[in-house]
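We modelled the chain as a single entity of 129 amino acids. Its sequence is:
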Amino acid sequence: MAVLIPRIRTINVRLSDEEYLALERFCVASGARSISDLVRNTMNRLVSGANRDDLLASSVNEYSAHVKDLELKISELAAELESLRTGNRPHRAGGSDAPREIAEPQSQDDPAPAPAPAIFGPPPSKTDS
């Protein structure tokens, strides 16, 4: 049978007699063709598993950073809402006093805002002709 993937690299490992016998028994019990195949397959699974673990750890770290960022934003919004409720001007983390998208509460001296225009108008009158 022709070798489809030629293997030209070798790795040498020193084992005690007990370790080698245990490896031989495991090779026979697992049905591997040879100790080389057993070690190669085990090593490949270990390496590919480590890559998956690295990828998973990277994803977990990325999501953790997003969660921490969201927690910070939520606490900033909660503080801003509380300061608006109490009438105190909130302290912005960025230090800018740029115009806010949230309207400041009106004092009692300010006139009430005009009511919003009706979108559909009053309901039609019931006139039967």
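As a brief sanity check on the tokenised model: The radius of gyration is 36 Å. The chain has two helices and no strands.
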